[in-house]
Amino acid sequence: MTECEFSSYRRICDLAAIQGGFVGRAQLTASGLSRTTIDSWRRCGRLQPAWTGVYAVGHLPTEPRARAFGALLAAGNGAALAGWSAAAFYGAVTRWPERFELVSPRRCRVRGLTVHHCRSLCLRDVWRFDGLRVTSPARTALDLAGEARRGQLKAIVDHLRLRHGLRLDQLRDVAARNPRRPGTQPLLVLIGESGPRPSRSALERGWRQFAQAWGIGPYQTNVPVAGHEVDVLIDGRVIVEIDTFGTHLLNFESDRERDAHILATTGIPTVRITDTALRGDPRQVAERIRLVIAHRRGTTSTPAPDRTTASEATASEATASEATAQSTGR
């Protein structure tokens, strides 16, 4: 690689670094690369084809959020993550769809992507996070209302209300602006059935199962502390907030300001965990919470018991006790 090529490659790498590892062919051309150079970099593996006109630099990313950058590049200007892809971004569903789902103000077809054409998108229907364009929570709810089951739609809307500030008036607004959308009527029915406060049943159920399994308590849920409603208050000493995917990105600053205000006002620290960790690595979460509780009580933390070997340990202790008793009897 010549010095000139190396300099060009560094520029492309810097660009890809802020786009999830992807660049568009138009961006490569605008950076001064010729068609011959682009084809040469493809052959030697510096550029990995992802979608039509979009390349990964060096290697193909596997993390969905990074790949979303490439999908948006392929769909073109004005495109945004939508539908189930937007729901996954917000953490309202646990799995990303196999094919990215997007919405675009212009008609386009991209192999490997599902791109919906919509001319009625307005500025408040699309949010931007670190360069990623995503349909707003209200628009996402409308798009899914025509596909999701009733209970599933309620859970999604409750999550968006609880974690991303979605309001009922925003749902009414997006429904009024799109009266002929398939999801409008189901969404209006859901709005009519919704109370002023979203349901927290799924998060609460997950916490209760975790707390019972790992002996965390006593605790209260959804209690006011220093003017803020917190997810869990353990023994009046430690607050636990359960975040979902996307929450750190969307509410990072406001969450930290809230935690700092509660700490300064009451002296109670906040432990933030994710619902994914709660399900995937409960032992580590339990040990982390126990350590904070022990520090607040001024005692030594007791390691969380290994649930996979607890029964075996109990059986071994019983066997040892029986052997000792028999020995003493002799």
What would you say this structure looks like, in words?
- By secondary structure, the chain is of the alpha+beta class.
- The chain has 3 domains: 10-61, no CATH class; 65-198, no CATH class; 201-297, VSR Endonuclease (Endonuclease, Chain A, 3-Layer(aba) Sandwich).
- The chain is 52% helix and 17% strand.
- It is built from 14 helices and 12 strands.
- It has helices at residues 3-17, 25-30, 35-44, 64-75, 83-90, 137-145, 150-164, 168-177, 184-193, 201-214, 247-266, 275-280, 282-297, 310-329; strands at 22-24, 47-51, 54-57, 80-81, 101-104, 114-117, 126-129, 132-135, 219-225, 228-234, 238-243, 270-274.
- Strands 9-10-11-12 form a 4-stranded mixed β-sheet. Strands 1-3-2 form a 3-stranded antiparallel β-sheet, with helices on both faces. A 3-stranded mixed β-sheet has the order 4-5-6.
- A hairpin with a 2-residue loop joins strand 2 and strand 3.
- Helix 6 (137-145) packs antiparallel against helix 7 and helix 8 (168-177) runs antiparallel to helix 9 (184-193).
- It is globular.
- The protein starts with a helix and ends with a helix.
- Mean pLDDT is 86; it is low at 307-330.
Quick take:
With 330 residues, the chain is of the alpha+beta class. The chain has helices spanning 3-17, 25-30, 35-44, 64-75, 83-90, 137-145, 150-164, 168-177, 184-193, 201-214, 247-266, 275-280, 282-297, 310-329; strands at 22-24, 47-51, 54-57, 80-81, 101-104, 114-117, 126-129, 132-135, 219-225, 228-234, 238-243, 270-274. Residues 307-330 have low confidence and may be disordered.
